[in-house]
Design a protein that fits this description.
Oligomer: single chain
Number of helices: 6
Shape: globular
Strand order of the largest sheet: 1-2-3-6
Structural class: alpha+beta
Number of strands: 6
Order of helices and strands: HEEHHEEEEHHH
Number of domains: 1
Radius of gyration: 21 Å
Largest sheet: 4 strands, antiparallel
Distance between the termini: 25 Å
Strand content: 5-15%
Length: 217
């Protein structure tokens, strides 16, 4: 049963992730922001990430392909970890966290592999929205950009007092990361492993009892 629940969770996250990305990409100009409920600290902000988290890139002409291929090669190991954890009846905390990480990683891989050939370029200068299935795609296979949209600048452009060490007198924005559903799923999965570490890596009581009885038999 845990296998079906994990698969359902992965599929659900992928559907929400891809729907939100396609919606943002086909309804927002690149760099366009929408203030949800008129709030400055809750925005839909359309940007695209060509590399890893925080915009980090692998330099060179093949950097993007290397990153995408590396992500794909890692997926079987995460999948096996999930399957093995289910087979060994590990805790729900561990299974859910691995499923979240798997779904998030797969969601961003879909962007990296296919979006370059599925969409054309969003051009705010000419007021052209990106089109799904365009005859003039913006990239090639394995050269897609990851779509990000959630932005929560709780502190925006705040001027730090001059007496603050190192950063005194500079303006800061917190939280300035722009992310997507896949990123959130990965972060949540890692967060569960960190904050619920003991529960995640401890066998449930019924599993412990079953192992004990099997040894007696």
């Amino acid at each position: 049963m845990k296998l079906y629940q994990a698969v359902f969770l992965i599929i659900l996250i992928l559907i929400i992730d891809q729907f939100s990305k396609v919606f943002i990409k086909t309804n927002f100009f690149y760099g366009e922001a929408y203030h949800v409920f008129g709030l400055d600290w809750f925005q839909f902000y359309f940007i695209e990430n060509e590399g890893m988290a925080w915009g980090t890139k692998i330099p060179g002409d093949y950097g993007k392909v290397i990153l995408t291929v590396f992500r794909i090669l890692v997926m079987p190991f995460i999948g096996y970890w999930l399957w093995d954890s289910i087979e060994r009846e590990k805790s729900n905390f561990l299974i859910v966290s691995i499923a979240l990480i798997f779904a998030g990683a797969l969601g961003n891989i879909i962007d990296s592999v296919f979006y370059g050939v599925l969409f054309d370029e969003s051009n705010p200068a000419t007021r052209n929205l990106a089109v799904l299935g365009s005859d003039t795609p913006y990239g090639t296979l394995f050269h897609g950009k990851v779509v990000d949209m959630f932005y929560f600048p709780f502190i925006d452009n705040y001027l730090l007092p001059t007496w603050v060490p190192i950063w005194g007198g500079e303006r800061i924005t917190f939280f300035n990361a722009i992310f997507n559903v896949a990123d959130f799923a990965i972060s949540l999965g890692i967060g569960i492993l960190i904050f619920f570490n003991k529960r995640a890596f401890t066998l449930p009581q019924n599993s412990i009892s079953r192992v004990f009885h099997n040894k007696l038999d």
